[in-house]
Design goal:
The chain is of the alpha+beta class and about 150 residues long. The protein contains five helices and seven strands. Helices cover about 45% and strands about 25% of the residues. A hairpin with a 4-residue loop joins strand 3 and strand 4. Helix 2 runs antiparallel to helix 3.
Length: about 150
């Protein structure tokens, strides 16, 4: 095992896809304006909504950090930080998508790593990491978690 911790951040490609997804929100007031239906209240509402969502996406991306250290895994999410010692992890599984059925949808395009530790569950999604980094996290934890040896 290396002495240097592995650090994973929010995937840049995922951040760009999230930002592109907000373009229709910004474009809607412009389309209304071009159609001759200019309503300052509506434009202000969409402007505030767009600003809040952009700040939320950028804040989540800036805050996210997953660190695989020598003795523990540390995940800093949107609102809190969790640290789990490898010795406390009783089970580790990889599943496709969330643990809930999705109505009217096909299989989810992402995977999640579920860690059971001391009666609590920590779920790490491939969405913020990206597929390549997710594979690296799974491989690194498989080496370190005693339940998988």
């Amino acid at each position: 095992m290396s002495a240097e911790p592995q650090v994973f951040r929010y995937a840049t490609g995922r951040l760009m896809r999230n930002m592109v997804g907000l373009i229709p929100l910004v474009g809607f007031p412009l389309v209304l304006h071009e159609l001759g239906r200019t309503d300052p209240l509506l434009i202000a509402l969409f402007g505030v909504l767009a600003a809040v969502l952009v700040i939320g996406v950028l804040g989540s991306a800036a805050r996210f950090k997953l660190t695989i250290g020598e003795a523990a895994l540390t995940v800093r999410g949107r609102l809190r930080k969790r640290r789990v010692a490898y010795a406390d992890i009783a089970a580790m599984t990889v599943r496709r998508g969330r643990g809930k059925p999705s109505r009217f949808m096909g299989p989810p395009p992402f995977r999640e790593l579920v860690l059971e530790a001391a009666g609590k569950r920590l779920v790490i999604s491939s969405l913020p990491l990206g597929e390549e980094a997710f594979e690296q996290v799974v491989a690194a934890l498989e080496e370190r978690v005693p339940a998988n040896r």
